[in-house]
Amino acid sequence: MLTRAAAAFAATVSTLSLAGCAQPDHDDAVVDGITALRDAGTADKNLGSMTTFEWDEVYFFPENTAVDDIQAKTGVELPGGLISGDHLYNSTLVFLGDGVVVETVQTAGAPLGFDSSRTFKPYPYPGELEVRDAAVYLVPVG
Q1: The pTM is what?
Q2: b vs e for 5-16, b when ≥16 Cβ sit within 10 Å of the residue's Cβ?
Q3: Among positive and negative, which fits the CA dihedral 8, 80, 34, 128?
Q4: Distance between CA 124 and CA 102 in Å, rounded?
Q5: Tens digits of per-residue pLDDT, 65-90?
Q6: pLDDT (tens digit, 9 = 90+) per residue, 110-131?
Q7: Is 2 among the domain residues?
Q8: Domain total for the chain?
Q9: Residue 122, in any domain of the structure
């Protein structure tokens, strides 16, 4: 059982860890689409059919990816107040159109797996997907 002091400390740490660090949005349509593909195996097999915005490439960054690494290795500037030293709390899809970020989507709750050798490489539209074991993976084209 936490003492009042320990509870207050935990609340302060939690608040400080979130202060000034806006995280990407959560998009139910994308998360639900990925989950449906994993569960049924017959749903749409590309991200393009799950999005309502235009894009031409997407990156997938697993949770705890350093914002500095993302910017240094891809040139992608994440919007929303993420600053040097921040890390993503959840796995995130970053959609670009003409080299500019058009949408970021947290994939918390989605069974989206990743290939660590492709962490800083984009996937072209429409973002082909395949089910492997209990997860859904983006598939490189070409």
Answers
A1: 0.78
A2: eeeeeeeeeeee
A3: negative
A4: 14
A5: 999 999 999 988 888 777 888 998 88
A6: 889 888 888 899 999 999 999 8
A7: no
A8: 1
A9: yes
